[in-house]
Design brief:
4-stranded mixed sheet; Glutaredoxin; single chain; NAD(P)H-dependent oxidoreductase subunit E; elongated; 163 residues; 7 helices
Length: 163
């Protein structure tokens, strides 16, 4: 069961966008932005309050890849595994991140909720392959050593230059 503050935040967001079916996606985006994931229990609450079925709300949430029902870390790291990145050895970068953070294909978020590691089909930076993204910053020409250094810098709280 979610803390009551989640419902209060959802009410605030619904008031901002209007309690109407057409506001479903922006409301979901705001909730995910606030909590780094979309709590299923909260999505059911929102659906009821804006007049859509739970099935409709959940179908929208599962259709769009950017919505997640799993809590994510403060830093979401997306490792590109598109063709250009893959042939330029993105998988050793992913494996280095998994090893450094104690993660795997099935365990994607650290216990301290600092890091989530995911793979994506393409980051749209093929000329800079292999690439990874940390939140909104793209890191080009990655190596396992560079990826480990990024983690060390993030753990230290320092902002890092993607170059």
């Amino acid at each position: 069961m979610l803390d009551q503050s989640y419902y209060a935040k959802a009410d605030e967001i619904m008031d901002q966008y209007g309690r109407k079916p057409a506001s479903l996606i922006p409301i979901m985006q705001e909730i995910q932005g606030a909590y780094r994931y979309l709590p299923g229990e909260l999505l059911s609450y929102v659906a009821d309050k804006i007049g859509v079925t739970e099935a409709k709300a959940f179908s929208v949430a599962t259709f769009y890849e950017n919505f997640s029902f799993d809590a994510k870390g403060k830093y979401v790291i997306k490792v590109c595994d598109g063709t250009a990145c893959h042939v330029r050895k993105s998988m050793p970068v992913l494996e280095a991140l998994y090893a450094k953070l104690g993660l795997s294909k099935t365990k994607k978020t650290t216990d301290d909720m600092m890091f989530t590691v995911e793979t994506v089909s393409c980051l749209g930076a093929c000329g800079l392959a292999p690439t990874m993204m940390v939140n909104e910053d793209v890191y080009p020409c990655m190596t396992p050593e560079k990826a480990a250094a990024v983690i060390d810098q993030l753990r230290g709280g320092a902002g890092i230059d993607p170059e």
